[in-house]
Amino acid sequence: MSKKAQTWAGPAGHVTPNPNTDAMAAFAGGQRGTGVNSNRWQQKYQTMRSKKLKADVVERNNSDTGNLERGRRPGAFTMMKDFYQGYTNPDTRAATLRHGRAMQPGKSAFADNEFFGPDGTTTAQRESTMPGDGEIHTDGERNIGEGFVADLMDREFVTMKKLPPEVRKQLRVKFDNRPYFTSWVMFVNIVIVIITLATQSIAPVGFTDKEVQRQLLRHNLAYETIGYNQTTNFWIGPDYQSLIHLGAKYSPCMRKDKEYFEKIKEDTAVEDTTGCCIRKDLNACWQTDRSKCTSSFAEFKDDKVCGLGKNGCFNEAYSNASLWEGAYSTWPNCPVQKEFKEDIKNLNVPSEHLLCEVSARPCCIGLQGECTVISQEECQFRKGFFHENATLCSQVSCVTDICGLSGFLFDDIPDQFYRALLPTFMHAGVIHLAITLVFQATILRDMEKFAGWWRIGFIYFASGIGGTMLSAILIPYQPEVGASGALYGILASLIVEVVVNWKIYKAPILELAKLLLLVALLFLAGLLPWIDNFAHIGGFFIRFPDLVCDPASCQFLGGGQNR
């Protein structure tokens, strides 16, 4: 050891032995016979050693990371890049996996916000030896305030020594729940989309309806060009009529819609004023009003129903003449059978409407289930539901055809209440599914590791149902599928987490503002066409009545009883 290192400038310019050097010598060499208190020198040596180790670590970290601020977390991309570099290097692979963080060659395993004790150990090392406590952070764990969103937004945390003891105790709690729910719900979403695409045709891709035209043989036996507006789907999936049939949110299928059934009554009243338009050669006849039976080859019959009447029904249950009086909608559905047409001819009564070939029957088309009497070929072209055994629209239930699934217990009372939950598992197309899977694989998985499968499952389904119900009330006739309401409930959970853990952030108001800005941008995106923003709002605000964490672990605002 040099003379300069062994002496120091004492008072009055005298050269005096360096007390720091004496402390090291006293501890290392054991100056027990010099009259010096070795315990005091030992403590002084340990303090100096811990300061030196800490200075070396800070110097190495500053040189490797560009003078990172104390307590500042690197971004998600930087963390992934560093971890990859640490893992691919054979010299640091074991340390990287052991510490659960990126370990670079020559870089300390200690985090920037950890503190050295008098023995040179860090806070995490000391706390890991406490009874009942493990490491503060290991790979795969989700600690309070951390996670995917925290890394993405580069959150800054206060140092441990600035937190109250009860908060530091809570921060030692590890959350390492396996993402069982996330894996299950992602699998179900993928399977349902595969089944949907396999059983339904894909609609034209676009943002506006597409006009489709075709020349076909109509019910009057004349070729005409028929066209209609087909709904498009920019998500690359089936049209919305098919989605309704598979279980999408649609209020007329969930409850008895007053306006919908009032329209059915109006159509039934108009139907009672129609008659049978019969071609003179009896090769075609169809039910319509007089104004639409204008062909010189046809004759209009008032108070007649094509292919339906008492004389054409040979079922003894409907032989009572009183059943065939009054409005058409009250008549029994007993159409003429071909094998009985010879018997009808022998009755010697006017029966052209019973002997003619019925060329048009009820067809339910469109999202509203509009019933119109057209040919089977035209019904198939317009993607409707054709009823070959009925003659009048009053004899069919179009709302049952449009809704599909299990039907209704009673025809006039829609009761598919399960549509409040079922749309959460459905998606409008491949792009829609991809967006949902990305959110679930990142944010939902991260929150489940923190909150557990049953808590996050409850929040997910409660938010999904809440968003669907609000959408069903405010926009009842617009179909809606997707987990957007449930996912916005998870976004609301991120806000709850920031508010509850307020004290652990350096700038909590800034962190809250970042999340609120993100949510506001997503709500603005919900104003685009074909996106149900009411489901987003319902799922978002239904989340706040409960909290992600247990009352015992939510005391950062001053205690779990005063949250």
Q: What would your notes on this structure say?
A:
With 563 residues, this protein is mainly alpha-helical. Helices cover 42% and strands 8% of the residues. It contains 21 helices and ten strands. It has helices at 3-6, 19-30, 38-65, 76-88, 93-99, 123-128, 148-152, 165-171, 180-199, 240-246, 251-254, 258-271, 341-345, 352-355, 376-381, 398-403, 430-451, 453-474, 484-500, 508-525, 533-541, and strands spanning 7-9, 15-17, 210-217, 223-230, 275-279, 285-288, 298-301, 361-365, 370-374, 385-386. The strands form four sheets. A three-stranded antiparallel sheet has the order 6-5-7, with no helix packed on it. The chain has a three-stranded antiparallel sheet with strand order 9-8-10. It has a two-stranded antiparallel sheet with strand order 1-2. Helix 9 packs antiparallel against helix 17 (430-451) and helix 18 (453-474) crosses helix 19. The chain is elongated. The protein starts with a helix and ends in a 22-residue tail after the last helix. 33% of the residues are buried.
